[in-house]
Amino acid sequence: MVDVDAVATELYGLRPEEFTAARDAHVAEARTAGERDAAKRIAALRKPTLAVWAANLLARADAEQARRLLELGRELREAHRTLSGEDLRKLSHQQHVVIAAMATEARRLAGEAGQEVSEGVQREVEQILRTVLADPDAAGTWARGVLAKAPPQVVGFAELGPVDVPGAAPPPKRRKAEEEAETEAEAEADTRAAQARARARAGAEADRTNREAELAEEALATAESERAQARAALGALGEQITDLQAQLDQARQERERVGAAAKEADRRHQQAAREAKAARAAARKARHALDATAGAALRARP
Question: How far is CA 215 from the centre of its chain?
Answer without folding.
Answer: 10
